[in-house]
Amino acid sequence: MLDVAVIGAGMSGMYQIYRLREMGLNVRGFEAGSDVGGTWYWNRYPGARFDSESYSYGYSFSRELLQEWDWTEHFSPQPETLRYCNYVADKFDLRRHFQFNTRLAAARFNSDEHIWSLEFEDGGSGQCRLLVTAVGPLSAPVQPAIEGVETFAGEVHHTGLWPKQEVAIAGRRVGVIGTGATGVQVIQEVAKNAAHLTVFQRTPNWCAPLNNRPITAAEQRDIKASYERIFRMCRATANSFLHDADPRKALEVSAAERLELWEKLYGEPGFGIWLANFSDILVDEEANATISEFVAGKIRERVRDPATAAKLIPTNHGFGTRRVPMETGYYEVYNQANVDLVDLSETPIERITPRGVLTGAGEVDLDLLIFATGFDAVRGALDRIEIVGEQGVLLRDKWAQGPLTYLGLAVAGFPNLLTLVGPHNSATFCNIPRCIEQNVDWVTDAISYMREHGYQRIEATPAAEQEWTEHVFDAAQGLLLTQVRSWFMGLNSNLKDRDKPRLLVYAGGSPRYRERCDEVAQQGYAGFDLT
Ligand code: NA7
Fold it and tell me: Which residues, given as ranges, of the chain have pLDDT below 50?
């Protein structure tokens, strides 16, 4: 029997295996893909890249690794990030601890023996004392629920299940459904080579320039000398990025001061325009309207045809209340002769046909159809596993009205299950590897504590779970994002049981979350029953 089974070989699974192996435990990882990388293994679509500064994204646990690895761009493209994941796996000899091509179908808790029985899709099975899920928050791809979706005769791919072999774009008629962070990345890349690109947009998002560029040799030296400062800053900011809110309020400064900050942020790399903006723009509608109008102005400047520009400007939510897609020449794509925008709010998709997509505006013939339609966010990858806790309760049934967790890491009634980056965990709203390292370190310490004290079982108490869940809702109070349809709120139009808003993320900030986790540990894992 394994001491610990880790599900997933992405950024969190790899680091978790590394830490537990260092403790000398009998541990094994199981991964559905054929190799390491998680998000960066599956999302191979053209244009996939970081929106986090590369050097703030890599693992911080090994100084040697930090000094050895050269990121080539401020925001690394997917192929380089996947190389990085492989480099880490090789350097720390992690691959031999994983069983690849092995998808977990079910996990059942045996209350008498305090162990989990595992069933894999290939018919294999296993047992472990502790089950650590590292399944990722955006890893359960969702196909669009559109009539006729299976009838399309051309080539079709979801961005999150992109094939390893190259997909031809040049000379082809390509359609993209979806204009979230992924759609925006794929559209701006495909537009360069496609004979013709049709973008099917249901809801426009507020996009902002990534301002990416190569890292020069001098910058590389500077980055390597500055890692301590970089990670210190990540620890101090609300979402562990190298950006933190401007303490001033948009409504308390002059219009000229507002413009000065916005022009600066619009021209700077990364999420600054979203996260380093005035402190009231994400909580105050009037303040939010000022920045939304600024970004709308930029869209109007960049898109030549005013009618097209108007379609690209969101009207049902304010800037930053959904995940801000970062772009490089996205709006200019719509000035190209080979690109059409179909506004589905005017002419909805009627069905997908063998030839292409039929909307109220007619049928668009396509050779390649790309679904950038997103994921069953945060909880989807857990829900897709039959996780059965005490008294035969299924995890997804327990969460029918929304997730209930303690620290986003544990669930009452599901002993010995620890969910890295689970719902209501600060890692859901974070420069994710920074929060992953915190999650993994915390879980590793908890397991080590259990061993020192001879405990075989750890379980969140219902009271602790309730208190944490209430805190998660309190922490999100007043944020405009809670009023808006998005995956943060657990909404997905393609899934029947995702039709009511159910907050999935922890918006109280990573410093506060870290403090809380540390307190719990210092108090001998307060809120957990240890047996
Ligand atoms: P998102 O952000 O969930 O975006 C999905 C997009 O697909 C969004 O524009 C949706 O429109 C659109 N969509 C979904 N289903 C349909 C159907 N049936 N018809 C038309 N349009 C549809 O997913 P992403 O992959 O872009 O990003 C997810 C996260 O991954 C991202 O936030 C990053 O953190 C990484 P809608 O807005 O629902 O009208």
Answer: none
**Inter-residue contact 425 to 435 (CB < 8 Å):** yes
Q: Is 246 part of any domain?
A: no
Domains of the chain: total: 1
Cβ burial of 426 (10 Å; 0-12, 13-18, 19+) is buried
Residue 449: inside a domain, yes or no? Answer: yes
Residue 429 lies in a domain: yes
For residues 262 and 275, give the distance between their C-alpha atoms in angstroms, rounded to a whole number.
12
C-alpha 446 to ligand 1 mean position (Å): 36
Q: Is 387 exposed, middle or buried (0-12, 13-18, 19+ CB in 10 A)?
A: buried
Could you read off the pLDDT of 387-433 as tens digits, one per residue? Answer: 999 999 999 999 999 999 999 999 999 999 999 999 999 999 999 99
Cα(264) to centroid(ligand 1), Å: 29
Q: Which atom of ligand 1 is nearest to the CA of 180?
A: 26
Tell me, yes or no, whether 42 lies in a domain: no
pTM of the model: 0.98
pLDDT in tens, 288-322: 999 999 999 999 999 999 999 999 999 999 999 99
Range of 503's domain? 2-36+94-140+376-530
**In this structure, what CATH number is given to the domain that contains residue 404?**
3.50.50.60
Q: Is 138 in the pocket of ligand 1 (CB under 6 A)?
A: yes
Cα of 227 vs centre of ligand 1, distance in Å, is 34
